[in-house]
Amino acid sequence: MGSAPNDVSSSGWTASVSASGPLLRVHIVGEIADPGVVSVPPGSRVIDVITAAGGALKSSDLKRINLARVAVDGEQVHVPAPGEEILAGAYGSTLGVGGAGAVGGSGAGGSASGAGSSNSARVNLNTADLATLDTLPGVGPVLAQRILDWRAAHGRFTSVDELGEVSGIGEKLLAVVATKVTV
Description:
- By secondary structure, this protein is of the alpha/beta class.
- Helices cover 17% and strands 13% of the residues.
- It has four helices and seven strands, in the order E-E-E-H-E-E-E-H-H-H-E.
- The strands form three sheets. The chain has a three-stranded mixed sheet with strand order 3-2-5, with helices on one face. A two-stranded antiparallel sheet has the order 1-4.
- It is globular, with a radius of gyration of 16 Å.
- The protein starts with a strand and ends with a strand.
- The relative contact order is 0.12.
- The model is unreliable at 9-18 and 88-119 (pLDDT under 50).
């Protein structure tokens, strides 16, 4: 990690969020001054989340993430270091992983050309968003939300087998999904 915040405001960017409603809770990790869960207003962008967490470190590679993407409640944003490998399904990915939660994605309903279509790419249960989890065989949006709820209640998955603790995932579905996910 670096030692000083990366000045994201030097380009003249200013927050212009005026949406009302309950605050979004976003988990921000990686090359960030104060990683953790931050609260931002609805309509906030990834840049707002970074600012709320004290800014990106000088060691961050902000060119690899979409700072203008709208933040999603419950997501995790990963600010990478230069050269850091980013797994498919990880927030912050610029590998074409789609969906609203993928920082490198194209927003809601984005392309799933990363995690969903490649047989070799595994979805990380600890970083995947709802849209990415929804691409798994047998997992729809309701079950994807249950996976996110389990993760929020229990913290990180420590093994793929813990997926069986999620309501609605039995032995048969776990056997199918286990080959498509990682922790």
